[in-house]
Design goal:
- The protein has about 525 residues and is an alpha+beta fold.
- The chain has two domains: about 260 residues; about 220 residues, Jelly Rolls (Sandwich).
- About 40% of the residues lie in helices and about 30% in strands.
- It is built from nine helices and 22 strands.
- The strands form five sheets. Strands 4, 5, 6, 7, 8, 9, 10, 11, 12, 13, 16, 17, 20 and 21 form a 14-stranded antiparallel β-sheet that branches. A two-stranded antiparallel sheet has the order 1-2.
- The longest helix is centred in the C-terminal third of the chain and has 37 residues.
- The chain is elongated and about 90 Å long.
């Protein structure tokens, strides 16, 4: 089968265009130097930022390095703090209970200085229910069926997994029955309004469960999160003490359950003087259990994140924008664009060749810079005592490649703006204004959270979502705002928005180039 001559000639002609544009780039020393400087600045500022970040934790009168974050079965950072009343279960079995009441307390800002202002109430993700857990070790595998403060019945397992059951609340007039069973490595949750008719809530596969696990009832309550508007914009988040109490009766255990009931305040903080800080508690009387817990069983989202050293990428990106604009506007300024267009009559092909060469060079320069900054900077952060939140190797690769792609797309967008405006200063200012400025406004204490999130949805700055490492969890109440490191779009969705603007600018530039002389 032969190749069509015109197609072969077209491919060869485009290859010549690519070689010509590559030759232009490497023969202009200033462009290569500036691109190298962008790489160097990204690395140096990132490592300096990591070197200047120190954290220590107190141990009595002594400051010590903070311990690494607690991790769950999947390697993610987790909170695992609750009050657990349990017994050992060997092999298959289950637990059925009736939850007759769920109450709590929330500390509010003090009205009178020095007097604690504690009011009755439950936060939305307060929890009380039944649990099967690998062991009482924090971070170990588990599954639980629970009643929550405002989200009805849920089944959760291994911190990150959450399945909704029936909505509604619980009271002595309208109790809720909860059941959790084990069959090998499979745990199944059920709920009922009358203890007779049961509805399956969810299934949790917990591979590798030991023969003997802990089965019982628990309660916990995360802090009451309040977000207030800052004086100069932005927002401030604060969490105050809360606790939740679940009242259980008609407790039934199935299977080979041994030993007496045991109470464990999992994860309670011990003060230097040996006292417990905000302890939980439990009481039993005539088959009724009252369990009060403080804390949460959920992913941890607060703390230093591994992308912190990539702060230097912003300055490096500005230098890349300058190079990208000059790659096209220099030809207009010196009148060389006419020669280029005479050598390549299809003008859109010339622009495509420039974009491909520039995008490839930028990506190739940014990839090692982001790799070094992310890996070495992260090591420096940890060596300085920072309890950096862990992320999976796949997430690390996604961040490194994603930020390099951000650089490449921003370069091509800047090139297209240069072809549209044909003036270097105007194109650089425009590119910085639409790519960099929205990000700066969104992540600093200038704009309200809603405005900051809007900017990072509808402007090319959405591409910065590529560097977010910790996801948002629907079952974790958090300060999900740009100022706290959370972007309104997922990483690849943010890059898609930037790519859309790049494609639009490229098409407009190609249209103008085809309709108007250089």
């Amino acid at each position: 089968m032969s190749t069509h001559p015109s197609r072969s000639a077209g491919r060869e002609g485009f290859r010549r265009l690519l070689r010509a544009e590559w030759t232009k780039f490497r023969t202009v020393r200033g462009w290569g130097v500036t691109m190298s400087l962008a790489t160097l600045v990204t690395v140096l500022i990132g490592l300096l930022s990591a070197s200047g970040s120190h954290t220590s934790c107190s141990s009595g009168p002594v400051e010590v390095a903070c311990p690494p974050p607690l991790t769950g079965p999947g390697g993610e950072a987790v909170d695992d703090k609750f009050y657990f009343v349990h017994r050992p279960l060997s092999g298959d079995g289950g637990i059925t209970v009736r939850l007759t009441s769920m109450t709590g307390q929330i500390r509010k800002p003090d009205v009178t200085p020095g007097r604690r202002n504690v009011v009755p109430g439950l936060v939305p993700w307060a929890k009380a229910g039944v649990m099967i857990k690998e062991s009482v070790r924090q971070g170990s595998a588990y599954a639980a069926v629970m009643m929550t403060g405002e989200h009805g019945v849920r089944m959760q397992h291994n911190f990150t997994h959450d399945v909704a059951g029936r909505p509604g609340g619980v009271s002595r007039q309208s109790p809720r029955w909860l059941r959790l069973t084990r069959s090998g490595d499979t745990l199944t949750g059920y709920e009922s309004a009358d203890g007779t008719n049961w509805t399956q809530t969810g299934i949790a596969p917990l591979a590798g469960l030991p023969q003997t696990v802990q089965i019982g009832m628990f309660a916990t309550s995360p802090g009451d999160l309040t977000i207030t508007q800052g004086d100069l914009g932005g927002s401030v988040a604060a969490a105050r003490f809360t606790e939740a109490t679940g009242e259980f009766d008609q407790v039934k255990l199935d299977g080979n359950v041994s030993g007496p009931w045991r109470d464990d305040d999992i994860g309670v903080t011990i003060a230097p003087d040996g006292t417990k800080h905000h302890p939980g508690r439990a009481g039993r009387s005539d088959g009724t259990f009252s369990i009060t817990g403080v804390g949460d069983v959920a992913p941890a989202i607060e703390g230093p994140t591994p992308e912190h050293p990539l702060s230097g990428a912003l300055i490096g990106l500005i230098l890349v924008i300058v190079v990208a604009v000059m790659f096209i506007t220099a030809e207009y300024r010196h009148g060389l664009i006419r020669t280029t267009l005479l050598a390549c009559p299809p003008r859109d092909r010339m622009l495509a060749a420039k974009a491909l060469v520039l995008g490839s060079i930028t990506f190739a320069a940014a990839l090692p810079a982001t790799t070094i900054t992310f890996t070495v900077g992260g090591r420096i952060l940890r060596d300085n005592g920072n309890a950096v939140l862990p992320v999976s190797p796949l997430t690390q690769v996604r961040i490194i490649v994603g930020v390099a792609a951000l650089f490449a797309l921003a370069a091509v967008l800047s090139l297209a703006l240069g072809a549209l405006l044909r003036r270097g200063v105007a194109a650089v200012v425009t590119a910085v204004t639409v790519i960099v400025v929205p990000h700066v406004l969104a992540v600093t204490s200038i704009l309200p959270d809603s405005a900051a999130q809007w900017l990072l949805r509808v402007t090319p700055a959405a591409g910065f979502a590529a560097q977010q490492s910790i996801p948002q969890y629907a079952h974790v109440l958090g300060h999900y705002a740009p100022i706290a490191g959370f972007y309104p779009l997922p990483p690849w969705a943010g890059l898609t928005v930037l790519a859309g603007y790049t494609a639009l600018a490229f098409c407009l530039a190609a249209l103008r180039l085809s309709r108007r002389d250089a």
